[in-house]
Structure formats: C-alpha cells, structure tokens
Specification:
Strand 23 and strand 24 (281-286) form a beta hairpin. The chain is mainly beta. The protein has one helix at 5-13, and strands at 41-48, 54-60, 65-70, 73-78, 84-90, 94-100, 105-110, 115-120, 126-131, 139-141, 148-152, 157-161, 168-173, 178-183, 188-193, 198-203, 208-214, 221-227, 230-235, 239-244, 250-255, 264-266, 271-276, 281-286, 294-300, 309-310, 317-321, 324-325, 334-335, 341-347. It contains one helix and 30 strands. It has a domain at 64-214: Methylamine Dehydrogenase, Chain H (7 Propeller). The strands form eight sheets. Strands 1-30-27-26 form a four-stranded antiparallel beta sheet, with no helix packed on it. Strands 2-3-4-5 form a four-stranded antiparallel beta sheet, with no helix packed on it. The chain has a four-stranded antiparallel beta sheet with strand order 6-7-8-9, with no helix packed on it. It is 3% helix and 48% strand.
Length: 348
C-alpha cells in the first residue's frame, strides 16, 4: 500500500505515532460467524401400547394421527387427545402403515399374507387387498408418477400399484434384499439392498433397474431418505452412507449409533434423524450444506428405538420401542411384557 506523502509526514510528526512507518496497515480480519447452535431435542413423553413387535411408523398430519405397523395389527394414536387404539386394523406381521389420499386411506403391507391392504381411515374397513408378492415391506408414494411403490424382498420385486384403482401397474425385478426407498421426484427412485450391501437406482417410467451402487463400509442398509441430491442409507454397523444421486459416487460415510433402521427427513428444519436401536440414540444430521452433511446432535432415546416417524407440523418424532431382554445363548432379544411405548422426541 502507498501512503500519500503529506499524510505520511503528518503521521510521522505526531509524537504518539512515532513508531508508525510506511509499512502496510492491515485491517482486522472480519470476525468468523458463530457456529449454529446444536439442535436441542429430548424425550418429552411416552405413549403406551400393547405388547408385540413393530416395524415402520408414520404420521398423518391431516387427521393428526400416528400409525405404527405391529405384529398382529396397526396401532393408531390420536395425537391431539392421546387416545390409543391398539388394534385399529388387524394384520399379520405388518411392515408399513402409510396414510395416503390426504389421510383418507391407510396402506398396510402384510408380511405373512403377502397382501397390500387399502383401508378406509374413517371406518377401519378394508377397501381392497392386492396380492403383492412375498413379504411386502416398505411402501411409499412416488411423487412423479403418483404410484404406490411396494418393496417385496421375498420375491425380489418392486411392485407399482395405482392407489385409485388398486391395480398393479408393473413389477420390476430387483434382487439383493429390497428395503426402504425414496423418490427423486422425477420418476427415479433409490432403494437399499440389505443383503447385497448396495443401493439400487430404478427408473419407474422405463420399468428397469438402472444400476447397482456398492456401499463400501456399509453392512445391512435398511432406512433411506433422499435430501438435496443426496441418498442417505442407514447401515446396521452404525454408519450412514451418503451417495450423490446424479453420479452414484459414495461421497461420505457418517458415524451414528449401531442398529439403525430408518432415516427420517425433516427438510423444513434442515435435519435428518437416524434412530439407532442397539445404541439407544437418535442422531441429528444437518442437511443445511449438502456438501457437508454432519451430525450436530446425539439424543439419548432407548435401546430398541430403531424406527420412527416425524410430525411435520411440530417437528416431534415418534419412536416405537420396548425394553429388550437378551435371549439365553445369545439369540435374538425379545421385548419385556408390558414395556412397549412410543417415545415422543420434541425440539426444545
């Protein structure tokens, strides 16, 4: 930097500034912005339910209901009154309980019978039963086609159903242990392959498997969500893989608790939640910067809380759980009688 000569003579003549020379004067660096505070969430309530197993849950924000797929029924809780209906509709090893059609219809996938059921949510009566395949599991609606997508790991089929006519439109063969999936909004979906430790990209409009993407470092991917062009897969060994949806590149692996079974996106609050059943924690991942997804909070929950649902109106999460009792000889743990609850996790 060059000083103008008259100004320099004036500065050097001032006694208090005698030490100033013609060296460049550097401005103080701008203060770095403070990091965003970690989101504060905690378990604030528990909703008791009947004994038995459980799988996926969902919230209907229109009617203000929580649905939980249970072993022999779909449980329903009125979120305004807290009233629980343990057997809203019967089932045999239910996996998904998904409200569609502005909450007027409930879709239930029935693992034992191989049926996908459409249920009137006012009366609880069955509207239709669709023979879907072996062990229908995760279900969601594709935003681009409006079709119901049902994963059938027992028969290696992605089944597309018209939710209005209840007719099967197409079945796409995808081997490898189909688990959860999500849509990019343009007719392309991604689904986890639990047995293959991989991610499948499927073109619904063309009716074909586009490619299979290995998930290095991931053991048993189950839960999945797409956010900001990234595909997040929860792996049983306690990591979440992040794949670029456009290129298929594995861009990051994020450590979470062991035993997750769901990825719950809350785009309105810039977060994704991963409940980990073995660890008894809920990891909150910031999605504010798609290039730098990272865990910003780890919330204590309960061992066994591995799936869940978000109420987009309030930001509350509902995590089914039970006190797990280890089996003799190292077998699969079982739920202690009288211990089933749905944990209510809320922002503070």
């Amino acid at each position: 930097m060059r000083f103008a000569q008259p100004l320099l003579r004036t500065l050097l003549a001032a006694p208090a500034l005698a030490a100033i020379t013609a060296s460049p004067v550097m401005a103080d660096p701008a203060p770095m912005p403070a990091p965003a505070p970690a989101p504060a969430y905690a378990v604030v309530d528990r909703i008791a339910g009947a004994d038995g197993g459980w799988d996926y849950a969902s919230v209907d924000p229109v009617k203000g209901r929580l649905y939980v797929a249970r072993g022999d029924a779909v449980m329903m809780a009125d979120l305004a009154t807290g009233k629980v209906t343990d057997r809203f509709v019967p089932a045999t090893r239910a996996h998904s309980a998904l409200p569609i059609d502005q909450g007027r219809t409930l879709v239930e996938t029935d693992g034992t019978s191989g049926l996908t059921r459409f249920i009137d949510t006012d009366s609880g009566k069955t509207l239709a039963e669709v023979a879907t395949g072996k062990k229908p599991d995760y279900a969601f609606v594709d935003a681009a086609t409006g079709l119901l997508v049902v994963m059938n790991p027992g028969s290696n089929g992605v089944v597309l159903i018209d939710p209005a006519s209840h007719a099967i439109v197409r079945t796409i063969t995808v081997p490898g242990g189909l688990e959860a999936g999500d849509s990019d909004g343009h007719g392309m979906i991604f689904a986890n392959l639990e047995d293959a430790n991989a991610l499948a990209q499927i073109d619904l409009k063309a009716g074909k498997l586009v490619r299979t993407i290995p998930l290095k470092g991931c053991d048993g991917p189950t839960g999945l969500a797409m956010v900001a062009g990234r595909v997040l897969s929860a792996c049983s060994n306690g990591v979440v893989t992040v794949v670029d949806a456009a290129t298929g590149a594995l861009v990051k692996t994020i450590a979470v608790g062991r035993g997750p079974d769901a990825v719950i996106a809350d785009p309105a609050r810039g977060l994704v939640f991963v409940p980990s059943g073995q660890a008894g924690t809920l990891s909150a991942i910031s999605i504010a910067d798609p290039a730098n997804l990272h865990v910003v909070a780890t919330i204590p929950t309960q061992v066994g809380a591995r799936t869940g649902a978000l109420d987009p109106r309030t930001g509350k999460l509902y995590l089914p759980a039970a006190t797990m009792v280890p089996a003799a000889g190292g077998g699969r743990a079982s739920a202690k009688p009288g211990s089933f609850v749905v944990l209510v996790v809320a922002p503070r």
